[in-house]
Design goal:
Number of helices: 6
Mean pLDDT: 95
Structural class: mainly alpha
CATH superfamily: nmb1532 protein domain like
């Protein structure tokens, strides 16, 4: 049987690659606003739009239904960290816009946002993969697991939500090839 949480962990592989690209970008002497915008768009559409939607709209409500709190405890922490991540993306986007308008002072803002997001998500993903998802695996029935997995696969297909997860993964891989492959 395919585990629903394994689908989320598969997303994490590519999101982690994106965080490594972000770290590399932050270390470069010159920031390229075109690629900053591509990273921000991938975070908004793939990491937040598709992946976090699977968690926030499907997995977390099921966990709350099974007795977890969305006000405190592991689910609440993950939701809070999603908000923190969105704040880093907002700062990155604003900084990129300022760079395009000729404000070189915005480079520090962008670098801090890149590193802040990368560090946050690397820690966040570790907590989800090693703690939260194991809790979820233990509380779902086989039927719930199957239903959740099917919903995730439907979202991944892009049939209603726009591009498929494979489309996003190709875009991440393009950035990996540009920034991390020598």
């Amino acid at each position: 049987m395919n585990r629903a949480t394994q689908n989320l962990e598969n997303d994490h592989v590519h999101i982690l690659q994106l965080t490594h690209v972000m770290e590399k970008m932050a270390q470069m002497s010159q920031l390229d606003p075109v690629y900053l915008d591509e990273v921000a768009d991938l975070i908004r559409s793939f990491a937040d739009g598709l992946h976090h939607a699977k968690e926030e709209e499907l997995l977390f409500p099921l966990m709350v239904e099974k007795g977890f709190s969305n006000q405190n405890g592991p689910v609440a922490v993950m939701l809070h960290e999603h908000v923190l991540g969105r704040n880093f993306v907002k700062a990155m986007t604003e900084g990129s816009r300022e760079l395009k308008n000729g404000n070189k002072d915005a480079e520090n803002k962008v670098r801090e946002a890149l590193m802040g997001y990368a560090n946050l998500l690397q820690s966040h993903i570790g907590k989800e993969n090693n703690i939260l998802f194991r809790m979820a695996d233990n509380l779902m029935s086989i039927s719930e697991e199957h239903q959740l997995y099917e919903l995730f696969m439907h979202l991944d297909s892009g049939s209603e939500s726009g591009p498929s997860s494979e489309d996003y993964i190709r875009r991440v891989q393009h950035l990996v090839n540009l920034y991390l492959t020598k």
